[in-house]
Amino acid sequence: MEQLIYEGYNVNSLQGEISANPFKFFAKLMHLGAVNATESKSLDEYSINEFHDWIDDVGGVGSDECAKVINCFTFTLTGGKPEKKPVAKVSKKK
Question: CB atoms < 10 A from the CB of 27, how many?
Answer without folding.
Answer: 21
